[in-house]
Design goal:
Layout: E1 12-16, H1 20-31, E2 35-40, H2 44-54, E3 57-58, H3 62-66, E4 73-76, H4 83-92, E5 96-99, H5 107-119, E6 124-125, H6 134-144, E7 151-159, H7 175-178, H8 183-199, E8 203-211, E9 216-217, E10 237-238, E11 244-251, E12 256-262, E13 271-278, E14 282-286, E15 292-297, E16 300-305, H9 313-318, H10 329-344, H11 355-374, E17 378-379
Parallel strand pairs: 1-2, 1-4, 2-3, 4-5, 5-6, 7-12
Antiparallel strand pairs: 7-13, 8-11, 8-17, 9-10, 11-12, 13-14, 14-15, 15-16
Helix pairs in contact: 1-10, 4-5, 5-11, 8-11
Amino acid sequence: MTESIFSQQPVRAVIIGTGMIAQAHYRGIRNAGGQILGVVDADPNRAAQIAQQWGVSVFDDINAVLANPAVDVIHVCTPNLFHFPLAKQSLLADKHVICEKPLAIRREDADELASLAEERGLVATVPFIYRYHPMIREARHLIASGDLGPLQLIHGSYLQDWLLGVEDNNWRVDAKLGGQSRAFADIGSHWCDLIEWLTGETFTELVANFHTARKTRSQGSAVTFTQSDADSTQPGVAVTTEDIATVMLRTGNGIPANVTISQVSAGRKNRLWFEIDGADKSLEFDQEQPEQLWVSDRDGRTLRVKDPGRWSDEQRRLASLPSGHVQGYAQCFEAFIADSYASIQGATPAGLPSFRDGQRAAHLIDAVLRSVEHRGWVKI
């Protein structure tokens, strides 16, 4: 691109879907200075309601979006089943794409999307947004600098409780819409992406176990992360996707790792936690306390906190609020969208998760499913 990114017109977007995550995309686009041309939803009434709320147009379907030359980028915020066809159609129409994860519910489809995006020279990103916590950037800097010494152990969890009750239900529970894996595909993929990106290590084999705590759930569907209003007196719907996943992994360098994934852990709202142990020091991070990074050695523990005036360059870049002013999930999403749009305009921001990262997650999900089926270790 020869034109300066500062002289270009705002990136013009359409959002497909109107659920909780679409709202996060909407706020991110506005914050990045993008222009939202319209919205698409399978429910025309819902589309009209959201379009009025956002002050944008309603497109009848994906074909109407693809035919509009003003559209630069399409945000795919639908149930998982529709990610692949919508993203593929968009790329073939030479539109940039930001697609929710999992990129596809079949590994082969994710492979196709990642290759297609590169072949057509399009920006195609996946919201692994936890990379955008400033203290995650600081953790990556410390690991890359060798401050921890050789890595020896990786362990952690990602725990939620929004599907704890038998009355809690959502489209994600339905394997036809969400895929064969639910908890691991939905949130375990975040944990694995974060660990591999932080450490530079690659998981090469794993053994996994699934457990479905709620064999049936009430009919009806809750908005994501809200309590369901389903009628618990109605006959239950059988559940085939997991509430809990436990996974042991090994990296190509032989480093052991383990993670527990749960959407039925009471009191845990969105607790992505990890500890990375090196020969000299260890790092600990809890996404529910995202401005804090614990750095420990044998003599004690030190707390580093987000600070736009200190620590590593990337930590400072993403510390958008002064130290002591709470910054969390919303700012991560805003930074991810801003970096995606900057990439569309020709920049090369660090750590931007692409369709190749979405493809990697699809391979991990596939390996977990194979391990559960065969009850043993599998290669990734």
